[in-house]
Every structure is written in C-alpha cells, then in structure tokens.
C-alpha cells in the first residue's frame, strides 16, 4: 500500500504540472478576486466533504458489495482515487460549467490525461503485480467508473455552492461571450 500511495501522489503531482500554463476565463480577468480566508474555507469544506463522501462510498462498495480482498481493494481504491483527483481539475479550474468552460491549456490536458492513462495502465497492465495491484472483474471496473462519474457530477454541483456568489459568472457575461448559446440561457 505505501508504494501505491507514493505512485498515486507522483502521478497526481505530474498531472498538475500544466496548471501554471493554463489561462483564466475572461470574466475572472475583468473581475479579479482577492484572497478571502472564509471563501477558501467554504470551498475546502464543500469540496472536501464531497470527496470524503465518495471515499466512504468507494470503500463501502469495495468491501461490502464486492467483498474484495486486500489487493483488489487497493487496486479499486487506487483507480477511483487517481481518476477523481486528476479529472476534477477540469471542473474546478473554471467557475463555468464544463460544457461552457474555456479549454484547458494543452500541457494541462495532455499531462493530466497522460498521468491518468499511466495510472490505469500501471494498475491494470502487465506490471500491476509489481506494485501490488490485482486484476479486477469488469463489473467492478464498471462500478469504479460509475463512482467516478457520480463524483464528478457532484463536484460540479458542489462547486457552485463552494464559490462565493459574487464569483459566479452571470448570464449576461456568458451570453456576451457565447452569443450563439444565448437562446439556451434564456430558454
């Protein structure tokens, strides 16, 4: 397990190397926000609670539904953990919903998705046993994928509770930046 945690941390750290290259949304540049400890704490509490809820759900599903042994549990937890922590960056990097968000910088996208693919390959590929990983049945992999998708949906919803109201993009700003989608905003 310690080697798996170190591998998880290494892959995650590598995946986030592209953050400094990423650009902020236009409305953030127009309305810069100052650091406010209460807002940071609220974001941390909301997003941390969602993450912890899904950790408990993952542990429960792995242990109580699939009755995994130690190696399968560690493999399942590793896959869920690496996927959620890497993919959530694409949600929290912008205040906008992902379908209206600016595109992440190529270095961030390639680094993050490359690290995720590497983690999946190391856990499920021919070298998995070197790291203490086990083969997982397709139904368990499907459950991990469903947990990951559910987490991302909850994180997107939670993001709007976690951010201060003054930081939320308003409809007029989005309509000005995406005139073709103005009808969708008002309809």
TrEMBL record:
Top-level taxonomy: Bacteria, Pseudomonadati, Pseudomonadota, Alphaproteobacteria, Hyphomicrobiales
Keywords: Cell membrane, Magnesium, Membrane, Phosphoprotein, Transmembrane, Transmembrane helix
Record field: transmembrane: 40-63, 75-94, 106-124, 136-154
Gene3D superfamilies: Calcium-transporting ATPase, transmembrane domain
Transmembrane helix listed as a keyword: yes
Membrane topology reported for the UniProt record: Multi-pass membrane protein
Residues annotated as domain Cation-transporting P-type ATPase C-terminal: 2-160
A Pfam family matched in the record: Cation_ATPase_C
Name used for this protein in its record: Cation transporting ATPase C-terminal domain-containing protein
Localization, UniProt: Cell membrane
SUPFAM superfamilies: Calcium ATPase, transmembrane domain M
Originating organism: Bradyrhizobium septentrionale
């Amino acid at each position: 397990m310690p080697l798996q945690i170190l591998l998880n941390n290494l892959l995650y750290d590598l995946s986030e190397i592209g953050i400094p290259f990423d650009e902020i949304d236009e409305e953030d540049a127009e309305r810069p926000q100052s650091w406010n400890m209460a807002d940071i704490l609220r974001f941390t509490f909301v997003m941390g609670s969602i993450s912890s809820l899904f950790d408990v759900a993952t542990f429960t599903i792995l242990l109580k539904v699939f009755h995994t042994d130690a190696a399968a549990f560690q493999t399942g937890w590793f896959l869920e953990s690496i996927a959620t922590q890497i993919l959530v960056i694409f949600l929290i990097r912008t205040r906008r919903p992902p379908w209206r968000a600016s595109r992440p910088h190529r270095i961030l996208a390639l680094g993050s998705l490359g690290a995720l693919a590497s983690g999946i390959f190391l856990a499920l590929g021919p070298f998995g046993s070197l790291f203490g990983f086990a083969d997982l049945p397709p139904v368990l992999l499907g459950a991990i994928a469903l947990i990951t998708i559910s987490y991302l949906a909850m994180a997107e919803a939670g993001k709007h509770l976690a951010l201060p109201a003054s930081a939320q993009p308003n409809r007029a700003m989005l309509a000005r930046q995406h005139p073709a989608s103005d009808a969708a905003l008002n309809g």
